[in-house]
Design goal:
Shape: globular
CATH architecture: Orthogonal Bundle
Largest sheet: 2 strands, antiparallel
Mean pLDDT: 86
Structural class: mainly alpha
CATH class: Mainly Alpha
CATH topology: ABC transporter involved in vitamin B12 uptake, BtuC
Radius of gyration: 21 Å
Order of helices and strands: HHHHEEHHHHHHHHHH
Number of helices: 14
Number of strands: 2
Distance between the termini: 41 Å
Helix content: over 70%
């Protein structure tokens, strides 16, 4: 029972962090049709900016300032780079975002070096929130859950209860009509790209000290984010939410399970393991398979349901 509850909480924390990261990418993809390969690099920049700001004025100002700076960088990139390549098609947009990602990945080690940063959890949150049976649950993970849920609710309210949210939703499907009504659609696109980048930056702020802040963090999390939007459905915020939580829980549980398929078969009375390749495969632990599970799920999803869990149309 203790293992189940603690794994659920850890999986929920990781899943909500994935959603905060993937929600911005989903907004950009659904509205602009741009598969932004630089999105995970904004996540990395958020962590590094937060570390640098926290060195001078502390974590709490960094929590606000770093995402805003990342959002401004994202808006500038859209206005003076991505908007110009948009005229030449999706291939140019894709190559542009790949180029931005490579530039950021080279700039970060050039400025901060290649060793992990000493980006620590703030002392105000470095304590045990509660003890479940014999396991302590850190207060900072509770804070991560709170920030993620707060941003989820705020994003939902902005998109469904405000004028700018209604304009954004209308621009998703009828940009020409929105422009005819007097709204500046390119400016709306710039705003959405900036907000998406800011969400990635915020995920980096709260995730950088919980995990690790180093130059390879964008690569480590970037592929998982694309798995989330494929499994959830391209452009679907609801699908991204469900997929983020599902993948977060699956990975967390599998990492903590130190059993093999052979052990499972033995529990039901099938003790004999065939020799050779099959026997070797049955001897692999679930924890060893955890890193590949999201990609296996993505492959199966593309085979049996290409539009994802909540995609609006078939690919």
């Amino acid at each position: 029972m203790e293992f189940f509850l603690i794994s659920m909480l850890n999986g929920l924390t990781y899943g909500l962090l994935l959603f905060m990261l993937s929600s911005g990418l989903t907004l950009i993809l659904s509205m602009m049709g741009v598969l932004n390969f630089a999105h995970a690099s904004f996540y990395m920049l958020g962590a590094y900016f937060a570390y640098q700001i926290s060195v001078f004025i502390g974590f709490w100002p960094a929590l606000i300032i770093a995402p805003i700076l990342i959002g401004i960088i994202g808006a500038v990139i859209e206005r003076y780079g991505l908007r110009r390549t948009h005229k030449t098609g999706h291939v140019a947009e894709l190559l542009f975002t790949v180029g931005v990602a490579l530039v950021i990945e080279e700039l970060v080690p050039l400025i901060w070096g290649r060793v992990p940063m000493d980006y620590k959890i703030p002392p105000q949150l470095d304590f045990t929130l509660f003890t479940l049976f014999t396991t302590d649950f850190p207060a900072y993970r509770g804070f991560m859950i709170f920030i993620s849920v707060f941003m989820l609710v705020l994003l939902y309210l902005v998109l469904t209860r405000t004028r700018i949210g209604l304009i954004i939703q209308a621009a998703l499907t009828h940009p020409d009509m929105v422009g005819a009504l007097g709204h500046n659609v390119p400016r709306v696109f710039m705003l959405v790209f900036g907000v998406g980048a800011a969400l990635a930056g915020l995920a980096g702020v709260i995730g950088g000290n919980a995990f690790v802040t180093e130059p390879g963090m964008a690569f480590a999390v970037g592929s998982i984010v694309f798995v989330v939007i494929v499994v959830g459905g391209m452009g679907s915020l609801e699908g991204a939410f469900v997929a983020s939580l599902g993948l977060g829980l699956i990975q967390t549980f599998m990492v903590a399970i130190d059993y093999t398929f052979a052990d499972v078969f033995a529990m039901v009375g099938l003790d004999s393991i065939p020799p050779g390749t099959v026997g070797d495969m049955l001897s692999v632990k679930f924890s060893q398979m955890a890193p590949m599970m999201p990609y296996l799920i993505m492959v199966l999803m593309l085979i049996f349901r290409p539009r994802g869990l909540m995609g609006a149309r078939e690919s």
